[in-house]
Automatic annotation (TrEMBL):
InterPro entries: TPR-like_helical_dom_sf (IPR011990), TPR_rpt (IPR019734)
Top-rank taxon: Bacteria
Protein name: Tetratricopeptide repeat protein
Signal peptide bounds: none
Organism: Croceivirga thetidis
Sorted UniProt keywords: TPR repeat
Keyword Kinase: no
Pfam name, any one: TPR_8
Ranges occupied by TPR repeats: 208-241
Length: 425
């Protein structure tokens, strides 16, 4: 789901209490919201490994173990410093390793993906491949990186090279590929097969990952009771899983129109998980509710956190929305959008660039981008909504009408405020 920052709406057009079927129950999830503690970010084993690392250390195993722990701490806390420390450990391991260098290169590539440094991830993947990395593992990584870079034809070739319907890794990538193509039914079928494999292996991490991802896909398909069920299953495994709680909050907000309860859920997350995007979502919810004070406070919290230089390009797209919808620094928004297009020329990146041109009154340039890089190349509702706005600005009303049915069907994914935007097209 895409959490877009939006401008203040005319209050009262859609009430937060607009009648919707009730899916969630506090009795189901309240136990996961109380007694939240800061996740542990050390252990005796971590200290043992970390103490072996010195400026001239050659303790390769320690570098790998420490990096793994830092990565886990990042996922649990949202604290970017842990991801950067993992990068440092892995970079040193790649530099000095004589044995298993390819495995450290693969881990560093995945670290770069998490940081949205996709071109560097590709270079590290090539390094792993050149020194004899596992063919299946490197081919899988090539698929992941090329999907992020928008090299979809290459990604498909790498996906074909690892084809094996009995393997979890192939199934989740096949699901992602079909999602990109807009075939949500096949996406869900593949993800369900992968989930069954995760359950049969009883692998904690794979089950948790499967439950949150299938919950997302069910939500996109409008199967909200199933989506809710699997977010709860994820929390049963990891009661502090921030992503699952965000999923619950989205159901409560987007479907049930209960912004107050959605904010309560998210408040329990931001008490210990510090990623800026949670504040961006809280701002969106407060904005829809008409709570200007909460909106301003959460936008301020988002901005203050996102300014940390350690994030690099990770929050560029959020920042573009911030400059367009809140701060109105359109030149800054355009520059960031140009950087995104340069770094990863995907339909999403081009959509941000087109949106900045539209806001600057350069409708025809925005239209050229939409026609060349977006239409026919993506099925993402948020991107298509932006395209429809640009078509309208250029008086291509028949193209707007052609997109409307799909957009109306995606209101849950887009969020409550999108309903007015769609009917205003």
């Amino acid at each position: 789901m895409k959490y877009l920052l939006i401008g203040l709406l005319v209050l009262g057009f859609f009430s937060c209490s607009e009648p919707q079927s009730q899916i969630t129950s506090k009795a189901d999830y309240d136990k996961y919201l109380v007694n939240n503690k800061n996740p542990k970010t050390t252990s005796k084993y971590f200290q043992l490994w970390n103490n072996k690392i010195t400026a001239d250390s050659t303790e390769i195993l320690s570098f790998g173990n420490v990096a793994s722990e830092y990565t886990r701490y990042f996922k649990n806390t949202g604290n970017i410093s842990y991801l950067k420390k993992a990068e440092q450990a892995l970079s040193k391991a790649v530099e000095i390793a004589n044995i298993n260098k390819e495995s450290y290169a693969i881990s560093l590539a995945r670290n770069y993906i998490s940081q949205h440094r996709f071109k560097e991830a590709l270079q590290m993947t090539k390094l792993a491949d050149s020194i004899g990395g596992s063919n299946k593992e490197t081919q899988s990584l090539y698929f992941d990186v090329h999907m992020e870079l928008g090299n979809f034809a290459k990604a498909e070739r790498y996906l074909d090279s690892i084809k094996n319907f009995s393997e979890f890794g192939y199934l989740i990538r096949l699901a992602k590929w079909n999602d990109y193509k807009g075939d949500l039914d096949t996406t869900i079928k593949m993800m369900e097969k992968a989930m069954k494999k995760a359950e049969s292996s009883n692998n904690h991490y794979l089950k948790l990952w499967s439950y949150t991802n299938i919950a997302d896909y069910y939500g996109h398909a409008g199967r909200l009771e199933e989506s809710y069920h699997f977010y709860l299953k994820a929390l049963n495994i990891d009661p502090q899983n921030a992503y699952a709680k965000k999923g619950l909050a989205w159901i409560v907000f987007s479907h049930e129109r209960n912004g107050t309860e959605a904010l309560r859920i998210l408040d329990s997350v931001t008490a210990y998980h510090k990623a800026p995007d949670y504040y961006a979502l809280k701002a969106e919810i407060a904005n829809f509710m008409g709570d200007e004070i909460a909106y301003e406070n959460n936008m301020t919290n988002y901005y203050n956190q996102a300014q940390n230089e350690a994030y690099g390009p990770m929050y560029n797209t959020y920042q573009i929305n911030y400059y367009i919808d809140y701060d109105r620094h359109l030149k800054r928004a355009r520059r960031l959008a140009e950087i995104e297009v340069e770094n990863r020329p995907t339909p999403e990146s081009y959509s941000y660039l087109a949106s900045t041109y539209l806001e600057m009154g350069r409708e025809q340039e925005a239209l050229k981008i939409v026609e060349a890089h977006i239409i026919g190349k993506t099925f993402e509702p948020g991107i298509l909504l932006n395209a429809a706005k640009i078509f309208k600005a250029n008086q291509h009303f028949e193209k707007v009408e052609a997109l409307k049915p799909e957009l109306i069907g995606a209101v849950y994914e887009l969020g409550p405020a999108a309903k007015k935007q769609i009917y205003d097209l």
